[in-house]
Design a protein that fits this description.
- Helices cover 78% and strands 0% of the residues.
Length: 97
């Protein structure tokens, strides 16, 4: 439906904006880019080898950037509604509880 299309496009924009805000060019971002933004998902070991870091660092970096992206998405949602409850409802509508 047109409403569903709008919701998908809006959420894609929210995610894009949040991801751009998380971009800092550091090691954590490079791991995120190499793993989560790759056309074909590599292994943690492949990312570690490519970046010259330990596999455990890849996991830690991904956790760090993903946490930032989620927080930025929440901030974007809060900016579009009036209450925290409405922000939670928006989050749940797109990502589930």
């Amino acid at each position: 439906s047109p409403e569903q299309d709008f919701d998908r496009m809006w959420m894609a924009e929210v995610i894009r904006t949040a991801t751009e805000r998380a971009r800092d060019g550091g090691a954590a971002w490079r791991a995120f880019e190499a793993y989560d933004l790759a056309a074909e998902r590599p292994t943690y070991a492949a990312v570690a080898q490519r970046l010259g870091i330990k596999e455990s660092d890849v996991r830690n970096h991904l956790f760090s950037v993903r946490t930032k992206v989620r927080e930025f998405i929440r901030e974007e949602l809060r900016d579009t509604v009036e209450t925290e409850e409405e922000a939670r409802e928006e989050w749940n509508a797109f990502f589930g509880p």
